[in-house]
From TrEMBL:
HAMAP family noted in UniProt: Porphobil_deam
Record-annotated Porphobilinogen deaminase N-terminal domain positions: 20-227
Broadest EC class assigned to this enzyme: transferase
Residue span(s) of domain Porphobilinogen deaminase C-terminal: 240-310
Name of the molecule in the record: Porphobilinogen deaminase
Pfam families cross-referenced by the UniProt entry: Porphobil_deam, Porphobil_deamC
Family indicated by similarity: Belongs to the HMBS family.
Gene from which the chain derives: hemC
Family matches, as InterPro entries: HemC, Porphobilin_deaminase_cofac_BS, Porphobilin_deaminase_N, Porphobilinogen_deaminase_C, Porphobilinogen_deaminase_C_sf
Biological role stated in the UniProt entry: Tetrapolymerization of the monopyrrole PBG into the hydroxymethylbilane pre-uroporphyrinogen in several discrete steps.
Misc: The porphobilinogen subunits are added to the dipyrromethane group.
Listed GO biological process terms: protoporphyrinogen IX biosynthetic process
EC nos: 2.5.1.61
């Protein structure tokens, strides 16, 4: 890409043009993810890429995300940087993209990178003898930032205390290992893998978040050269699964405090399956739906599953929990 004096992008790529500016949050995990995407772009297209950290209000705020309007707090400044051409593309964890707020029409997710592990893992202090959730004593304190996890843990072990825990992965692990607060915490396996953290934990049999394990690469629709370049990263099966999950999420119109879980995958027989669940905060009540379709019918599948969940009472469960 070359940048003209008026700030409008040209159409040349490689050594003869300018570098691609790739924006991301400034957390260690976000930077690792962005550098991975940048390396892949350099490899595929021989394009110089500069990773640009953008501090977001969600990262600056240490309280509950609901106080800032939800997970959109991780995206506002990055969206603005894209729209004002301070950066050319952006990398997001798709699970952090709100489902009840429309994306700016000028922007498009041109690529969904091949999905990583979607599982949630429960971790224990390094000095603890506890090896699995079954070993935790009644009343043990578990930390997580996700209402979806809280609800499903409530179904499995209603005797546990689950409290809100935010922070980057290393800070959460530090608080866990200090042994003064939490008996266990729950993190995404993909986060540990991307950071290269090898740690014993128990993979939980719970439904993941919509978009779990997926990195989405965002860019401006008005820059077709950039869109075409970014599409080199797109994984077909991941996009098909994302279409089903995100359509379901949009149909439910849940907010960041809504305990909604959803997971699509290509089954061995080639069919696309979608499982969706909506819970009360403590997990004592829930509705569930699962259906199958051909992989090119992801949006239709998501529409059907969200409608089925709503027919079963999902709207009442969602509306019980304030934004």
């Amino acid at each position: 890409m070359s940048v003209r004096g008026d700030g409008e992008p040209g159409s040349s790529w490689g050594a003869g043009g300018g570098g691609l500016r790739l924006g991301t949050r400034t957390s260690p995990l976000a930077m690792v993810q962005a550098n991975g995407v940048a390396a892949r772009l350099r490899e595929l297209a021989d394009v110089p890429v500069e990773v640009v950290g953008v501090q977001t209000s969600g990262d600056r705020h240490q309280g509950h995300l609901g106080e800032l309007g939800g997970k959109g707090a991780f995206m506002r400044e990055i969206d603005r940087a894209l729209l004002t051409r301070q950066i050319d593309v952006a990398v997001h964890c798709l699970k952090d993209v709100p489902g009840d707020v429309p994306r700016p029409g000028e922007l498009v997710f041109a690529a969904y990178v091949e999905r990583d592990d979607t599982s949630d893992v429960m971790l224990f202090p390094v000095a603890s003898d506890v090896q699995c959730m079954a070993d935790l004593a009644p009343g043990a304190l578990v930390g997580t930032s996700a209402v979806r996890r809280r609800a499903q843990l409530g179904r499995i072990r209603p005797d546990l205390r689950v409290e809100y825990l935010r922070g980057n992965v290393n800070s959460r692990l530090g608080r866990l290992d200090a042994g003064e607060e939490f008996d266990a915490i729950v993190l995404a396996r993909a986060s540990l893998d991307r950071l290269g953290i090898e740690r014993h934990g128990e993979s939980l049999d719970i439904v993941p978040a919509v978009g779990s394990g997926v990195l989405a690469v965002d860019c401006r629709r008005a820059d077709p050269d950039i869109v075409e370049l970014v599409r080199l990263l797109d994984d077909k099966e991941t996009r098909q699964c994302v279409a089903a999950e995100r359509t379901m999420l949009h149909g439910l119109q849940g907010h960041c405090n809504s305990p909604i879980a959803g997971h699509a995958r290509i089954e061995r027989g080639g069919q696309l399956s979608l499982r969706g669940m909506v819970f009360t905060r403590d997990g004592s009540q829930f509705v569930h739906s699962q259906e199958w379709a051909s992989p090119d019918k992801g949006e239709d599948l998501g529409t059907y599953v969200s409608g089925d969940l709503l027919r079963k009472g999902a709207r009442d469960l969602i509306d019980r929990i304030p934004h």
